[in-house]
Specification:
The protein is an alpha/beta fold. About 40% of the residues lie in helices and about 15% in strands. The protein has helices at about 15-30, 45-50, 60-65, 100-110, 125-130, 145-160, 175-180, 185-195, 205-215, 225-235; strands at about 5-10, 35-40, 75, 85, 115-120, 135-140, 165-175, 200-205. It is globular and about 55 Å long. The two termini are about 30 Å apart.
């Protein structure tokens, strides 16, 4: 099964890391064992969002440099059974090369049902590293022009890297705001602009941001939970309709 998924966005602020965590929680609710890898070197945040900041001793750079074993750099979530985290390095000088990161992921992936890689925003070297070992990709975008254009750039870069299995997640969608702003006639126009098939439409819910910043993902949940449950099932090949259609 293609179980290594990179989650990417063309610009910051789309809610990409939140999508990574919410999807991971949905997968473990369905009995899956999930490894989350933070690939945002120098700007990691998944440890805070999972209330694991004080647990991290070793990160991905320590693992590949020999400071610890690969498994020593993997930490079990306190709040979510079967969810594990490998943190990104604090220092941007320790960014992993694509080839080394592929070796790391290839060594670890057999122990998990899914490996979810949180890519840094944009299409720079960190993104290339994050995408290199991926079997498939989720492109996270908001329904506004700069985000949509960024999503298309990510799609094109993924194509160039050989990651052809791509799906679009439109995040933080609010129908009233979408209509009032009038950037697009409808959601089909957004999907066409990114040139990527839609797999999930996530409603805007301020509670998600609050939950993540408090580090209690999985303990308290929001109305968007059903959307991520649906997304998890779709990734497993189940034919289920969109949980939220805007």
């Amino acid at each position: 099964m293609d179980n290594v998924i990179v989650v990417a966005s063309g610009k910051g602020g789309t809610g990409k890391s939140t999508v990574c965590i919410c999807l991971s929680v949905a997968l473990i609710k369905q009995g899956k064992k999930v490894l989350l890898i933070d690939c945002d070197c120098g700007m990691r945040g998944l440890d805070i969002m999972l209330d694991m900041e004080n647990d991290i001793v070793f990160d991905a750079a320590d693992a590949v440099s020999g400071n610890c074993s690969f498994t020593d750099a993997v930490y079990k979530s306190k709040n979510n059974e079967n969810l594990y985290l490998m943190a990104a390095p604090f220092d941007t000088d320790n960014e992993l090369s694509p080839g080394v990161f592929r070796q790391l992921v290839d060594t670890l992936k057999a122990d998990y049902d899914f490996v979810i890689i949180d890519s840094p925003a944009g299409i720079g070297s960190g993104f290339v590293t994050a995408a290199t070992p991926a079997d498939r990709a989720l492109i996270v975008a908001n329904a506004e022009p700069t985000s949509v254009r960024g999503g298309l750039k990510v799609k094109n870069k993924l194509d160039a890297l050989g990651v052809k299995n791509q799906r679009l997640v439109i995040n933080r969608f609010d129908r009233k705001t979408f209509t009032e702003l009038g950037f697009y006639a409808d959601l089909d126009e957004v999907i066409d602009a990114v040139q990527t098939q839609l797999i999930a439409l996530v409603p805007f819910d301020i509670r998600i941001s609050v939950i993540m910043q408090r580090g209690v993902a999985g303990l308290n949940w929001s109305a968007a939970a059903s959307v991520f449950d649906c997304l998890a099932r779709r990734l497993e090949g189940q034919r289920v309709p969109l949980a939220f259609k805007g």
